[in-house]
Amino acid sequence: MPVHVKVDLTRLKAKLSSENIIRARKAMATQAMQEMNQYVPSSSKGNHENGTTLRGETDIADDGSCVLYNVPYAKAQFYGIIGPFKKGKRAGKTYKIHNYTTPGTSKRWDLRMKGNHKAMDNVQKALIRGLLWQKHN
Question: For the chain, how long is the longest CA-to-CA vector?
Fold first, then answer.
């Protein structure tokens, strides 16, 4: 006696549509940006030309894949290394950043946030909430 099973995947396909995935990734990236903010260096000495600091010049990628820090010195702060220099007496040399002036901050703030279980729970919940959002007509 054969058994026929009909599976309706329309709701699942709607939940996992590319539009919903991007929405969920943006929600997750926004939450991650907020959780990392406490570890991101912020100093009045590191002002960008428009007067904002590294924390104030953040953005989320259009597809929600990453958090972007839009100041010229962001890479040096993130990796904790200045250089290599292209010309002058310091050509080819790199220097480690030893003094982060904002208490509790340092390089690789993404890894510091990943080590914080509460923060990672919040990021995970944001992703799930992003997937569960319903589009209202």
Answer: 86
